[in-house]
Amino acid sequence: MAIANPATSRPDPNNGNEPIYYLPGPSNSKDVEAETSFYVGSGFSVYLNGTVGVAKYTQTDLWVANAPSNTEAVGLTWQRNSWDIGFFDKRVGHMWNDNTNTPIQNQAIPNNPFSITNFYINYTMRGASHSRGTKVQFAINNLLDRHNIVGVTPATVGTAPNPLDQLTLLPARSFSITLTPGYAPNR
Asked: Which residues, other chains included, contact 38 with Cβ-Cβ below 8 Å and sequence gap of 6+?
């Protein structure tokens, strides 16, 4: 079954500040996904997920932009009393970007696979306190500080690299501390 894709845009060649909206055309997607999580013991669990798929425009049989050919994720978590610790790595497979300059070219720019690794540690207050359920989380996103190219917006017609192409990179490593308050009145 063909899926009608949402409108997308590209800069107007006569006025770069104004977008031109267009419909990229219907596409067919076929994919398979498998996911599991299992308890290893001593508070440890393993999470696995994988997808394999194809998403192509029906009229041209070319890949839909930003549709990866596969993804894989693996995670290891540990839970004990009030503590939760997790480590997850996700790989995104090969995908394509379109060149939206006139004439529009689908499947114009290849993007190599990339991975991102995240880590978190949580502490949740338990017991008879009114603030039980309060959670403090420390997280590190992009733990290995990778800066892979995850998207390209070409500056010119064609598929040749250009110094004016706009690259989208994985964001740099970041840290966050989150406090989620809990309130539990006496019963």
From this structure: 45, 46
Instruction: Answer whether 165's CB lies under 8 Å from 155's CB.
Output: yes
Which residue bears the tokens 């733990």? 143
Question: What ranges do the domains of the chain cover?
Answer: 28-180
**How big is the chain by its Cα radius of gyration, in Å?**
22
Nearest to 165 by CA among 94, 111, 87, 129: 111
What pLDDT score does 10 carry?
64
Angle at the Cα of 175 (from 167 to 143), degrees rounded to 5? 65
pTM of the model: 0.81
CA pair distance 114, 91, nearest whole angstrom: 6
Place of tokens 């006569």: 14
